[in-house]
Amino acid sequence: MMNLISAMAKTGDVICYVIDSTNIVARAEQIHSTSSAVTAAFGRLLTVASLMGARLKGEKDSLNLQLKGDGPAGSFLAVSGSSGNVRGYVQNPRVELPLNQNGKLDVAGAVGKEGFLYVVRDFGFGEPYIGSSPIVSGEIAEDITHYYATSEQTPTVCALGVLVNTDLTVINAGGFIVQMLPGASDEAIDIIEASTNAMPPITQLLCEGKSPEDIAGMLLNGFEYDILERRVTEYHCDCSLERVTRILSAIDPDDLEQMAQEQPITEVDCHFCPKIYRFSSDEIRCLIKKQ
Ligand code: ZN
């Protein structure tokens, strides 16, 4: 299923990106065994990372979103590339929290309300571009909107949502980013404000069977628009034996020798996916010789 689309008003005033990220968040929940509140928080971050990654131009460009709040889930990381595929990691995935005062999963409680959102874009050459902004609510969509307003001076509306079953599986997840383009008219801004204010939660729209294209149509109601792109994005880890070997090779030889002595097989887990890489003591010693 094409789960991510972008659409632009023919007037050039506004662009929007919409994703149904149900597949991504469901896979993340399986891999990381997250509690329901963490699934909601992590799922929102992965969702927006896919939306922001899909906007990168170069094949090797990458985007890291790091959320470092003072909540019990600890820090969150979501990584994506220009494909829009994402992977991620949470420090404490199984933290349980009661529902918040609105009876909703307590995303802000898991993330914390003090801390920073870091956005790192790496274009494969030179220093990566690093932006940051303070966490404003811990609900993530507001934090992203605030980041765009303060760090990139781009008026943006962002909405993100994750709906979780009582058995912890993911019912659905999705999100959108709407951005006014340079020189947007006041009239266009008013129309977008009205349409985004009137939008029901994205998880409700997905429950009603609305597609990303339907949702883009609702956001750009009042404009003639073009669909710029439709694509498939998923949870995808690109770890490999080669990459893990390279990381091990950078470890101090004394520490490697200690590993080789302490256990016949050294296991290295990928933080992003269930893969485990195993190295025998002989293989570890081989790495020392190559250093
Ligand atoms: Zn992996």
Structure report:
The protein has 291 residues and is α+β, with helices and mostly antiparallel strands. The chain has two domains: 4-231, Hsp33 domain (3-Layer(bab) Sandwich), CATH 3.55.30; 241-290, CBS domain Like. The chain is built from ten helices and twelve strands. The protein has helices at 22-32, 36-53, 107-111, 141-151, 186-197, 202-207, 212-219, 241-249, 253-262, 281-290, and strands at 4-9, 14-20, 62-69, 76-81, 86-90, 115-122, 129-134, 156-164, 170-180, 225-231, 265-269, 276-280. Strands 8-9-2-1-10 form a five-stranded antiparallel beta sheet, sandwiched between helices. A five-stranded antiparallel beta sheet has the order 5-4-3-6-7. Strand 6 and strand 7 (129-134) form a beta hairpin. Helix 1 crosses helix 2 (36-53) and helix 9 (253-262) packs antiparallel against helix 10. The radius of gyration is 21 Å and the shape is globular. The mean pLDDT is 95. Zinc ion (ZN) is lined by residues 237, 239, 270, 272-273, 275.
